[in-house]
């Protein structure tokens, strides 16, 4: 019985992985890199296969490339023959080279997932990159900074996050940990590139309470709401999204050693999270049931 359940679960994962690859392959070559197929015969894995595997790594919650490639060779080599014998360093270099396509690919499915939202949610979370004892013993981490968090001091970066009420990320920014939330709010809204002409609400916690920010957003037709009583529990959805990214995708425990590596992993995690919503919708599954399908 256990073997039967394992086989059925693996079959569902293969179906979802096939859908994911088709979405990535179509968008990558049709919209982002039309000339990309020119050198594909010379490559062990195509660019779209590498991107799909990078997303699969995050969906399965495996940080180590070596461990992930071992699992991929064992379970999915019939779908990706080029993964057999692939060195982790080669896979790592290909993913870093293709990292600039992760966010544009993610944005190709956003409209189907969120449409034109009237209510937006904004929040931020701290990501520690080095233990405090390691900071004194090393040259530090470029792009990171110290910040006071309650009774603790954290050395790391801050992820600023804007999403719709269904939990789908619209855009995000990575800054040193000591950058205030209000400084990134307008930049996040501009990056979201939402159409004009629709009155919107932006729900944030008390860190976003600012008279200057409220006036600036009001001129754009956006009402800033920071009082919890006026949010009717809607802002909890972004807290759930950030919690899922940390718990399922390991957002707070990456193995990155450089700022580029950290940014690449965060982009892959958020892209995988967004595509997981889209794949679930296409397969008629509950939108938020991610771990059960890909683990």
Automatic annotation (TrEMBL):
- Lineage, uppermost ranks: Bacteria, Bacillati, Actinomycetota, Rubrobacteria, Rubrobacterales
Any Pfam family hit: DDE_Tnp_1
The segment(s) forming the Transposase IS4-like domain are 116-274
Q: Name one GO molecular function term.
A: DNA binding
Q: Which GO biological-process labels does this protein carry?
A: DNA transposition
Task: State what protein this is by name.
Answer: Transposase IS4-like domain-containing protein
